[in-house]
Specification:
- There is one protein chain.
- It is built from 2 helices and 14 strands; from the N terminus they run ββββββααββββββββ.
- The protein has one domain.
- The chain has helices at residues 80-90, 96-101, and strands spanning 2-9, 30-40, 42-43, 46-47, 52-59, 68-75, 105-114, 116-119, 125-128, 132-135, 137-138, 148-150, 159-171, 174-187.
- It is mainly beta and 201 residues long.
């Protein structure tokens, strides 16, 4: 599946999670939400195109320490078949990047339904029911461009725009005030081609 995402977390600029550093939020943990818009994709015969979902995380320390809490909020317009397929993908049951990450999960918080929206543009934004609403304010780069992070060890895309994404989130009991923000184009497959970039995930 492929598309675009925007995320917010409790880390200060710049979030150290992409390089497996300890989260730099005041309490030393990372609470975050990333909202994905699937532009195209499928699992077996289930078409996932057009589905929006949110991936909610709690990282108690640096990423490879494991013990993560992970939950999913699926847009209420998705079918039951799409919900089943996405849970299988994100839970790591069909391999690919999320299959690699699943070994680090400590607690799977499950799948909930709500209105999930993603808006693209120079400043991507997202909302999840009445529990999360944020807009990415990108950091400026030279010549009117934006600051990006590329080819880091962990994450959802090979190259991401970075900046601030302020706003309160309260999902699965993981409440936080967002500081760090990021957005990028993602592409995942159950079996990645040999040597193909997997992004940061």
């Amino acid at each position: 599946m492929s598309g675009k995402y925007v995320g917010s977390c409790s880390c200060a600029l710049i979030c150290p999670c992409p390089v497996d550093g300890r989260p730099n939020s005041p309490n030393g943990e990372c609470r975050g939400v990333a909202v994905f818009h699937v532009a195209a994709g499928k699992l077996d015969d289930t078409d996932l195109s057009g589905v929006d979902f949110a991936l909610v995380n709690w990282f108690p320390s640096h990423l490879t320490a494991g013990g993560w809490k992970v939950g999913v909020v699926l847009d209420e317009g998705a079918s039951d078949g799409q919900a089943t397929a996405l849970e299988s993908i994100l839970h790591g049951e069909v391999g690919g990047p999320f299959g690699d990450l699943a070994a680090l999960y400590g607690e799977w918080l499950g799948v909930e339904r709500a209105s999930v929206t993603f808006s693209d543009g120079d400043n991507p934004s997202a909302s999840v029911g009445g529990h999360s609403n944020f807009t990415l304010e990108t950091l400026p780069g030279p010549g009117g461009s934006v600051t990006t992070l590329k080819n880091a060890m962990y994450g959802f895309a090979v190259e991401i725009m970075i900046g601030k994404a302020q706003g309160h989130t309260d999902l699965f009991g993981l409440d936080f005030d967002g500081i760090w923000g990021e957005s990028g184009d993602f592409a995942y497959a159950s079996e990645m081609a040999e040597g193909a970039p997997k992004g940061r995930v």
